[in-house]
Each structure stands twice: as structure tokens, then as C-alpha cells.
Amino acid sequence: MEQHLSQYKIFYEVARCGNISRAARELYISQPAISKAISKLEESLGTKLFSRNSRGVQLTREGAVLFQHISSAFESISKGEKELKRIHDFHIGHLTIGVSNTLCKYVLLPYLKGFIEKYPHVNISIESQSTIHTLEMLEAKKIDIGLVAEPRMRRSLSFSPVMEISDGFVCAPSYMENLLLREGENPDIFKTGNIMLLDRSNMSRKHVDSYLADNQIEVNQLLVATDMELLIEFSRIGLGIGCVIKDLVADDLKNGTLMEIPLDVPIPKRVIGFAYHSQDMTDTLKEFLAFSREFQKEQDAASE
């Protein structure tokens, strides 16, 4: 059928105009070329498509049947072209982002706010889930991009860094006062304190577990929370000593609501950024990455 597509286009225009000379002007080709194309199409189909009259040409019964099908096809093509132009003109697209609740609230939201202001017609979906699940969905190409801590094994993923974060153990001053009263000066917090960590499915927990194992630290009493927000709240009310991202409690540490427990060996820092497949990127993903890089430059300049 491919070799007949141009002939079908000519047939469609002639049938629509009802006149070969008018169709020639529409298609910017000569009348003899149109007549030749129609003849070839009729020959290949084995039927006559037009009959001539004083005003031009008229579809035969067989031609009318063909035109009914051809017209819907070319109208669909026209609609498709208009839709593509609308998508291009208004930057209409779709972006699916995987991110944990914590990173979404504290890191992603400012990016989203600025991006939506610049590209208000982009449809954005958020897959709120663990970092591990985000990486799995990225591997399976079920989402476009993920905001994650830099994975040790990137596999086929590209990574665009956004910020560096530090983890630390914090607690309410009242909790430490009571711990010192009960255990005496310089207690080993990991043996005497109520240590609060995220569950093992969380990447932050895996990072902290590696730190504890590398430094041969054992925890006697452990409370497990499902997300970082709970850990922070538990720490604020004096429930125990929580391992949290220090950037998220900077104000608490500054105003004295929380205090940081000094460690002989600090927990290694981590890098947060956008992970994605660099091949076959959509225009919307390219726009988001370009925006995020510019946004990060502005944030860095403002903090200097």
C-alpha cells in the first residue's frame, strides 16, 4: 500500500474538490500529473473511480465507497498533525517522577513549583514510594525519572546530582538529660539509649546499617519507624535518639529543640540527585533536566 499513498492523497483531494484543476492548485502539482496518478490508482484497483461531467469530475459508486474510508484516514492524519502542533506550541507533555515522601517534601517541591510555572501545560505524575522501588521502576522504564540518593551501582542509569546530605543522631535535650541521670557521665548511647532508625527497606537505613557495621557498633534497644517524618517527631518529643537527615532538622538544631550526638566517626555524606535513562529521552524529560540544572545553579549562587 505504501506505493499508493501519494495516489490516495491525490484521489482524496480530487474527490473533495470535485475538480482536477482545483485539486492541482491545492497540491501544487500539474493537472496531467493528477490525471496520471488517478489512472494508475484505478488500474491498480481494477475499477473506475471518477466519471467526468461538464463541471469537473464525479465519484463513481466504487469511488464513493473508497472516498468514505480514505477521508476518515486523512482527517485522522490532519487531527494528529494539529495535536502535535498544539503539544509543541504549548509544551504539552507528561512526566512521571518517582520519589520518597521525605525527598518529595523537602527537595522536589521547589523544583516542581518552578517547573510548573515555566511549563504550566505539562502533566506531572508523582509515584510516592521508597527509593528502592523507584530504582526498580526506573530499571523497568515504568517512570521517567527518580529523585534518589546516588546508587552505588548505577547500572544503565545516568545521575544528575542536586545536593549533598548528612545523616546524624539527634535527640531532645530532655532525653539526654534523663539518660545521663540514669546511666552516668559519657554513656555509650548505642548500648544504653533507645535508638530509632527507619525500616530496613529504606535506603537511608541501609546506609546507616553499613556505617554501624563498618564501625562495629551494635544497638541494644531499637525502635523502627516507617518514615523520616516520624523519626523527627519521635526525637522531638523525647522518645529516643533518632538517625535523621540533618538538613531536615537544621532549624531544630539551631533553636535547641534537638541536639546532635557527636560521633567518633561521622556518618559518610550522601548525594541526592535525579536518576534517569539518558537514551530515548522525551522532550519533556529533557526540559525538566535542563530546568533543574538552571534551578540548582540559581540556588547555589543565592547561598554563596
Q: What does this molecule look like?
A:
With 304 residues, this protein is of the alpha/beta class. It is 51% helix and 21% strand. It contains twelve helices and twelve strands. A five-stranded mixed beta sheet has the order 4-3-5-12-6. α5 links the parallel β3 and β4. The protein is rod-shaped and about 110 Å long.
Task: Please specify the SSE layout and strand pairing.
Layout: H1 5-17, H2 20-27, H3 31-45, E1 50-53, E2 56-59, H4 61-90, E3 93-99, H5 101-118, E4 122-128, H6 131-139, E5 145-149, E6 158-165, E7 167-171, H7 173-183, H8 189-192, E8 194-198, H9 203-214, E9 221-225, H10 228-236, E10 241-245, H11 250-255, E11 259-260, E12 270-276, H12 283-303
Helix pairs in contact: 1-2, 1-3, 1-4
GO molecular function: DNA-binding transcription factor activity; transcription cis-regulatory region binding
InterPro entries: LysR_HTH_N, LysR_subst-bd, WH-like_DNA-bd_sf, WH_DNA-bd_sf
Domain HTH lysR-type: 1-60
**Tally of DSSP helical segments:** 12
Category by helix and strand content: alpha/beta
What composes the largest sheet?
5 strands, mixed
Strand order of the largest sheet: 4-3-5-12-6
- CA distance, first residue to last residue: 64 Å
Number of strands: 12
Protein name: LysR family transcriptional regulator
Organism: Candidatus Copromonas faecavium (nom. illeg.)
Family: Belongs to the LysR transcriptional regulatory family.
Keywords: DNA-binding, Transcription, Transcription regulation
